[in-house]
Design a protein that fits this description.
The chain is an alpha/beta fold. Helix content is about 40%, strand content about 20%. The strands form three sheets. Strands 8-7-1-9-10 form a five-stranded parallel β-sheet, with helices on both faces. It has a three-stranded antiparallel β-sheet with strand order 4-3-5. Strands 2-6 form a two-stranded antiparallel ribbon.
Length: about 210
Amino acid sequence: MQLQKLGRAANKANAYSWSKNPKGISVLDFDDTLATTKSLVRYTTPDGKSGTLNAEQYASKYQDMLDKGYEFDFSEFNKVVKGKLAPLFQKALKLQKKFGPENMFVLTARPPQAAKAIFDFLNANGLNIPMKNITGLANSTAEAKALWMADKVGEGYNDFYFADDALQNVNAVELAMSQLDVKSQVQQAKVKYSKTVDQVMDDIIFDRTGIEPY
């Protein structure tokens, strides 16, 4: 992690001690935290082979594949394909009342172009996060999320709630927050996989053929 940048955030944090001037912020990942989707990232290997990554695979493999020369097509990842509510959505609705929607943020590894689709999905389900508060990093590294969080200290925030499905992101943010004079709660979102055999088969049919299971 960039210690110099984190150090500057730590200095600013001293001016915004949460015990004296509380200012709360909620920051949530999108994929497998607020929603589950069928959106895929398409890639081409250096030798011309193609394939796809789901949101979880993209988060864990993107940087390594990029370093190896893979090329990526994010056109589908800019959309919310077959979106369904994920584990923390109901909690997000409660957080909306706690700090207000203007102090809620979506921090995703998806590209910035995905913000409109994410905004429409959340708004349709009652979560009114302003579109300007939806940040697409186009970067799946844990460091990128931790540094983004540290930057928010400089904006006066000092009472943090952060949730993400990726353990590496949770650990990085937790470490960064521990270095700052702020109050923070960091949580890992976990999708419950309790599908029946029929549901699994329906998903396989859709993935392979694009045919909706009716």
